[in-house]
Amino acid sequence: MLTIKSLHTHYGNIRALKGVSLHVRSGEIVTLVGANGAGKSTLVNTICGLVKPLKGKIEFEGAPIEGMPPEDIVRLGIALVPEGRQIFATMSVEANLEMGGFVHRRNGRQVREDIGRMFERFPILGQRRTQLAGTLSGGEQQMLAISRALMSRPRLLVLDEPSMGLAPLIVREIFSIVRELRQEGRTILLIEQNAKAALQIADRGYVLETGKVVLQGEGAELLEHREVQRAYLGKG
Ligand code: ATP
Predict the structure, then answer these.
(1) Hey, whose CA ends up nearest to atom 9 of ligand 1?
(2) Closest atom, ligand 1, to C-alpha of 193
(3) Atom of ligand 1 nearest to the CA of 45
(4) Ligand 1, from 42, 192, 210, 213: best to mutate by most atoms within 8 Å of Cβ?
(5) Per-residue pLDDT at 215
(6) Is the CB of 40 under 6 A from ligand 1?
(7) Which mean pLDDT values do the consecutive 10-residue runs of the chain (236 residues) have?
(8) Whose CA is nearest to atom 17 of ligand 1?
(9) Is CATH 3.40.50.300 the classification given to domain 2-77+154-233?
(10) What's the pLDDT at 231?
(11) Across-strand partners of 215?
């Protein structure tokens, strides 16, 4: 579904991605782990068109998308749940969801139906539909960020550090939502610092270090890998 080949992204003379190749097959959860500054967000932002790559290829369902504007990439079926959630704090919960449905705005009925579906799935958001999004708890904001991304009806959902800053119980809930989304047939690219939980639910994973993929394999296999245990799970 998504194939990335030899991707290079620089910020001036900072080489954030140095030839990253990876793929995500339809129906998979693929996890990308790596320390601060490894280039995870740069990779996600390059996939979603927020940052332009220097060279390399990104194909989504067989078509090249590298360098395309973000809204065209959303239209093709990729949605991002950004790092730090980035909800529109001074807008209502409902208005945040409308923004997520922006690419379908000409089909008002579909957008309303989809908002209804989000409220069924996350009743707490329905109860707070008129409340300003900035007044929600961290976990509720993450649910809103996920729902907002789902409003574009993506086939590939990219989550950038969804567990960041959340209490352990809420983190568990977010990971179980991710698992449910896959069961519903969505494909997921999950970027996480919480390597253990993220690799546990992953079909496959990649480890990124200073802009390069240094390890890849099945989720369970990576969890057992000595280097992963040492660097990301604090063992050994
Ligand atoms: P984190 O978990 O801290 O978000 P990350 O793995 O997502 O880390 P990136 O944010 O992609 O890493 O950063 C990769 C490298 O690129 C780092 O050296 C970072 O300092 C640099 N970088 C990221 N964004 C910019 C930017 N807008 N301008 C210049 N350098 C940047």
Answers:
(1) 39
(2) 2
(3) 11
(4) 42
(5) 95
(6) yes
(7) 98 96 97 93 96 97 95 96 94 97 91 96 96 96 97 96 92 93 95 91 96 95 90 74
(8) 37
(9) yes
(10) 82
(11) 207
82: alpha, beta or left? (left if phi > 0; alpha if psi -120 to 50): beta
Confidence at residue 227, expressed as pLDDT on a 0 to 100 scale: 86
Q: 13 in ligand 1 pocket by Cβ < 6 Å?
A: no
- At residue 236, the pLDDT reads 60
Distances (CA, A) of 42 to 13, 59, 181: 14, 17, 24
Q: Enumerate the CATH 3.40.50.300 domain ranges in the chain, comma separated.
A: 2-77+154-233
Residue with CA nearest ligand 1 atom 16: 16
Is the model's pTM score more than 0.90?
A: yes
Name 50's Cβ contacts closer than 8 Å, sequence gap at least 6.
Answer: 70
Give a three-class secondary structure readout of the chain: CEEEEEEEEEECCEEEEEEEEEEECCCCEEEEECCCCCCHHHHHHHHCCCCCCCEEEEEECCEECCCCCHHHHHHHCEEEECCCCCCCCCCEHHHHHHHHCHHHCCCHHHHHHHHHHHHHHCHHHHHCCCCEHHHCCHHHHHHHHHHHHHCCCCCEEEEECCCCCCCHHHHHHHHHHHHHHHHCCCEEEEEECCHHHHHHCCCEEEEEECCEEEEEEEHHHHHHCHHHHHHHCCCC
